[in-house]
Specification:
Elements lengths: L1 E6 L2 E6 L9 E3 L5 E3 L18 H10 L13
Antiparallel strand pairs: 1-2, 3-4
Pfam families: zf-HC3 (PF16827)
Protein name: Zinc finger protein
InterPro entries: Zf-HC3
Length: 76
């Protein structure tokens, strides 16, 4: 099950049944090793203001068989 988790300044995607807790490190779909901070967890008073990692988004779509063509991508 893919899920989004904010960590280290971006919303990264991961494959797993549970969201990581503050202080835990995970490997995002983009390949980055990132650590979750308390401020990254909305249930603990954090916010989801950081931008989505574009590499995680592309990998999520690729794994779901929904790769976007260049014409469908937002170039902004």
């Amino acid at each position: 099950m893919f899920r989004w988790q904010q960590a280290e300044g971006k919303r990264h995607a991961l494959d797993g049944p549970f969201a990581p807790r503050p202080g835990e490190t995970f490997t995002a779909l983009c390949g980055a090793e990132v650590t979750v901070a308390r401020r990254d967890v909305p249930q603990l008073g954090g916010h989801w203001f950081d931008p989505t990692c574009p590499e995680c988004a592309e990998e999520w779509l690729r794994r779901e068989g929904q790769v976007r063509s260049i014409e469908d991508r937002c170039l902004a």
